Amino acid sequence: MPEQTPLEQLVRDRMAALRRARGDIGQRLSPSNPSKALRRLDAFAATGALPEDNLCERLAGALGLPVTDIADAARATRKAIEAQAEADYRARFEPHAIWTTARSQPSSTAMAGFINAPARLRLPFPSGLPTEGYVAYCQDQAPSGIPLYGPVTGFIINYTPDHARRYDLEGQPLETLQSAFRVGSALTRV
Q: Could you tell me the pTM of the whole model?
């Protein structure tokens, strides 16, 4: 990710052009709680995730900009973050398998977060294992089931970020995919 997101850059440049301090912007966003308003602005500017309230409108007013400029910068921020995440994924990519199961979603998302069930769907290959050995390795390592997902029905081998193939448990190819199959993640905060 660049040092500053497009939205952070827009806010910084506009504050400089108007010669407004951060505290002044916080005061204009929320006279009753400028510190909280600045924390919310920082989170919004860092992620581009559109707030559910009227922060965009208030920010546009505080910076003397059209709301569309704020929305465009937020969209550019989200796109830059997504592009960086994709580049990071491709840079770290190593061939691996994903177990396919009776359920595509865990039976309990809360429990899945506690036990990190989505991570159990992934099977890394040992270094040095030749591509021709992937299917046999998956067959040898196949568990009977994955907690909260149910019985294992097969596997997907992600050969590259742009090529994957789905197999049944007997190692028969079922489908070729245009991109690697990605498993979501579960986060739990206590």
A: 0.76
